[in-house]
Amino acid sequence: MKQLKTILFATVLSLGVLGFAQAQSKVAHINSTDLIQAMPEMKSAQAQMEKLGKTYEADIKDMATQLDTKAKQYDSEAATQTTEQNAKRAQELQTMENNIRQYQAQAQRDMQQKEMDLLQPITEKAKAAILKVARAQGYEYVLDSSQGNGVIMADGKDLLNDVKKELGI
To answer: Backbone phi, then psi, for 168, in 5-degree steps?
Structure first.
């Protein structure tokens, strides 16, 4: 009877240890920012954003030059104009200045929208590759170790090189 209890206890203990070992989740981490920055699509997106930014910057500079030229012209002619004409010209300059501000604000919104439109397919591709590699290697959880994402310690498997290989970069 005592031997039966010992065997039963040993069986329960080994099943408990086996169950505990199987309950352990496989966790890996990846710095998604580094991954996305390494993708060729990101370099292309950055080039497009830079080109668009330079276009807006040139437009705004042209508008500011026109405003400055007109302001100097009106200033030099102010003595020969009536008070009513000078007030009308001042209003015109104010309208031009407001138009420049509105254009700057619209350009900023357009840039933000363009950036989101360009980044969405890149991040989706990166996420799909991360999921594919993690599933192939049997990981249940993948934590993002990018700065500010809350991972304090990352001693587990780093999937960055495997995912880069999957993407061909």
So the answer is: 80, 30
Determine which of 7-16, 118-127, 156-165 has the lowest per-residue pLDDT on average. Answer: 7-16
Phi-psi region of 140 (alpha: psi -120 to 50; beta: other; left: phi over 0): alpha
Answer whether 143's CB lies under 8 Å from 27's CB: yes
DSSP state of 79: G
Q: Residue 60: which of 5, 2, 7, 110 has the closest Cα?
A: 110
95: helix, strand or coil? helix
Burial class (CB in 10 A: 0-12, 13-18, 19+), 35: buried
Torsions phi, psi of 158, nearest 5? -95, 120
Domains along the chain with CATH numbers: 25-167 (3.30.910.20)
Chain centroid to CA 20: 39
Tokens encoding 51: 């080109």
Whole-number percent of the chain with pLDDT over 90: 51
pTM above 0.85, yes or no: no
In tens, the pLDDT along 87-122 reads 999 999 999 999 999 999 999 999 999 999 999 999
Could you identify the residue written with the tokens 């991954």?
A: 35
Which of the four pLDDT bands, split at 50, 70 and 90, describes residue 21? very low
